[in-house]
Structures are given as C-alpha cells and as structure tokens.
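W.,

You were right to be curious about this one. When I first looked at the sequence I had no strong expectations either way, so I just let the prediction run and decided to look at it fresh. Below is the sequence, 241 residues in total, followed by the output.
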Amino acid sequence: MIPQEDLIEGKTARAWMLELPAEEKEAIQEQIAVFREEKKKLDMEIAKWDSRGNDIIMLAKQMCIIMMEMTDFTRGRGPLKTTKDVINAAKRISEIGTKLNELCQKIADECPDSRSKTDLVAYLGRIILCCHQLNITSKVKADIQNIEGELVVSGLDSATSLIQAAKNLMNAVVYAVKASYVASTKYKGRQRAIVHWRMKPPPKKALVKMEDPQAEKARVRKGTQADRVEPIRALSEFDSY
C-alpha cells in the first residue's frame, strides 16, 4: 500500500508520467533511445567476461539493472512507482558505485603502469560525479498545475535530466570496466590479482544438427505421396504397350 503522502492528486508519480502530453512523451522516448545505445555498449562489455570471481562485472550489472528501472519510470513503466522509489534507487546506485570505485581504486593502486593508472582514476572520478548527478536528478516528478479547473501535466525537463544522468553514468561505467581490465594486465611477477578476468566461453553448438522429428515425418509423408501411382493410371500405361 502506497502512503497517501507519496501520491499526487491520488495517483503515483509513475501514473502521472503516462499523462504527459504526446510531444513530451516523444521527446522522452528520443532520450531513452540514446540511453539504450549506451546500455548496448555496457552489455557488450559485460557479456565478454565471466562474472565468477569478478566483482567489478557483478557491480556493473547491478547498476545497469537499476538504471533501466529508473528510465522505465519516466515512461510510466517498471517497478518504481513514486518519486521516493526513484530517489531510493539513485541511493542504491550510489552505494554500488562506491563499492565499484573502492574495488577499481585497489587495482589502480597496484598498477605499475602510470598511464593505465591515470586513465582508470580519471574514469572513477567520472563515476563519483555521475552518481552525484543522478542523486540530484532522481527527484523527478510530473509538474501538475490546475489551470482554470483543468489539470495540466508537464515533466519533460526532470525526466530528460534523469535519463541524461543515467546515460552519463552508464558511459563512465563502460570505460571504468575497460580501464580496470587494462590496468590488471600490467601486474608483474607474482602480484596477486584483485579480480579475475576470465573470458566467458562461447555458447556450445551441437556437432551434428538435430532434425526436427515433425519436419522429418512431414518430409517422409510428402515423398510417399509423390511416388504413389493410381491403379487406373498404371493399367492404362500397361495397355498402351
């Protein structure tokens, strides 16, 4: 049950996002499309690695899921219903971002290559900044005004700000994951790895292509029907000799 104080005119903030004017919905959808392109990059990077023994990949996955929920909210969808839900989601991302930052910082501290270390530290700085930006923009909600007895809903600015912040954070995480891997390859001798970078094995493929039993039966029936000769036709052919 949603507390009354979290409702706006009897509706959740998510429900009001569905009431936005068509042109605002279209503008939000355009921003979502840009966000999804950034998400594809993160998905491709994460998909390369086995998450077992690699907390960086695990944390990046968690951040990606929550960011998707936040952007779904701007379209009136997803599990987040109120502005408070979105604010709490942003807090969770900040907490995960802090863990990711601490882990990657350990890799940077152990990295003997100055350039790789500098790159990684720079991307970690971006993650901290983007998490802060996301916290600020998480107070997204539809602006509802009563004009001459009619409720007028608007929420484009706050929605697009949230999506932009999520996109920026997604981009920073992509580069941080890449830079963490590069820095990890610079360890020397018996230096203990902070995380284990193992390429995910490709999906297994059958050595022999299995035939669909139903398709095989249909092919047999078809062949049988094609070879069948009517008795009258066979007799007429015999008489012609």
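Here's what jumped out at me. The longest helix spans residues 156-184. And, maybe more interesting for your project: DSSP finds eight helices and two strands in the chain.

Coffee later to discuss?

I.
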